[in-house]
Amino acid sequence: xxxxxxxxxxxxxxxxxxxxxxxxxxxxxxxxxxxxxxxxxxxxxxxxxxxxxxxxxxxxxxxxxxxxxxxxxxxxxxxxxxxxxxxxxxxxxxxxxxxxxxxxxxxxxxxxxxxxxxxxxxxxxxxxxxxxxxxxxxxxxxxxxxxxxxxxxxxxxxxxxxxxxxxxxxxxxxxxxxxxxxxxxxxxxxxxxxxxxxxxxxxxxxxxxxxxxxxxxxxxxxxxxxxxxxxxxxxxxxxxxxxxxxxxxxxxxxxxxxxxxxxxx
Length: 265
Description:
Blueprint: H1 11-27, H2 45-65, H3 68-72, H4 76-95, H5 98-103, H6 112-127, H7 136-151, H8 163-172, H9 176-199, H10 208-233, H11 239-254
Helix pairs in contact: 1-2, 1-9, 2-10, 2-11, 4-6, 4-7, 4-8, 4-9, 6-7, 7-9, 9-10, 10-11
């Protein structure tokens, strides 16, 4: 068995997730290949949302059975990666990224994202406890997504700016709210995708690919709820509290699986 959370899924867990994916289409009222308002053979936006709302609670219920919540709320790497990202953003926004350029020797690099990815790996290696963090892969992927997306944002820069300075300007253009939301959403999206992949490694289920896309959409909605709550508390920089609120929102999600759509007559 591997060290990452998705490796805990048993054969019966996989069957339950796949059954949930199949039933989600029925719950969405889309068993006949879509309705008016959808592309030919596709799903309406409402049906896609209902499918996502059905798929994700089923996956989380399976995960809960495998001690997801106990382990997630003890995950040091989620907190460490988020605190690291917010420290990068803060330095970029308020100090023109000077501290981080010096700390990580970015002044001469032609690829600051690649070098920061190496620094992220070092951070996770140093902070991971003797018992491997079962969420490391999803956490690392989410942090890299934030870095890569920051690198392609539009921001004003001067011709003489180094790649690191340009990256800093682009990172500074991201609000703290958006950074937290993107990290949380990307983490959940990666986690859900790995659960689907583990349940259907050969992609034998026709809806598995769609399930990944829909669950990523649901992940972004959950992330926005987390940010809304943490903003109201005035604790947007508190990574441990963000992790706690995320766990609470995921528990709520399990209980919010929609009822089947009414049958049209």
